[in-house]
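Hi R.,

Here's the chain you asked about this morning:
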Amino acid sequence: MLYSIMEEKLIVQGRLITQKEVVEISNVIASNPDLSQWKLSLKLCELWNWRNEKGLLKDIACRSLLKKLENKGYIKLPELRRRCPNRMKDKSNLLSLLPCLSTINNPKS
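And here is the predicted structure, written out as tokens:
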């Protein structure tokens, strides 16, 4: 589903993106409604043969491209299924995991 018609050509993540690519992305999304954003990026990389110099799919660059196009209103991405865990986000229990630091900061009298 297109939200707005793309009048301009954009360079996003090093790729030239025109209305043709936006339609192509929208068609892949519409014909594969169960794809996660990650699998969608892999599918598009394969479709475009978008690889780095080592031959690996540029799926992270593709996900960034997709998010930028969504932010501009050109496409609607599938909902995120889960967030990537950030093990360091909650550091409140970090000291309790390290007994030697815990005793230095909380010495027993």
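One quick note: The helical segments are 19-31, 37-48, 59-71, 94-97, 99-105.

Cheers,
M.
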